[in-house]
Design a protein that fits this description.
5 strands, mainly beta
C-alpha cells in the first residue's frame, strides 16, 4: 500500500492527511489521504496543479513528488 510521505516543495509542510479507514485503503491505493489541493482545468478535465494548504503556493502536477 502507498504510504509515501509528501512535502510541499516551497514550505516543506507535511502533506500527508488523515488515515484512510483500513477497509477503504484498497480502493484508494494508499494508507492516508493527502492534504494537497488539486487545481483542475475545465479545458483538460483533470488536475493541472497542486496547491499547499499551508503556504498556498502552487506547483505543476508533473513535479508533485517531493518526498522524504
Amino acid at each position: 500500500m502507498n504510504d509515501i510521505k509528501e512535502y510541499c516543495p516551497y514550505c516543506n509542510a507535511d502533506l500527508q492527511g488523515e488515515p484512510i479507514p483500513e477497509e477503504s485503503q484498497k480502493f484508494y491505493g494508499a494508507t492516508h489521504f493527502t492534504r494537497k489541493i488539486g487545481i483542475t482545468s475545465i479545458e483538460f478535465d483533470s488536475i493541472r496543479k497542486w496547491q499547499c494548504p499551508d503556504c498556498q503556493r502552487e506547483w505543476n502536477r508533473k513535479s508533485n513528488k517531493t518526498m522524504k
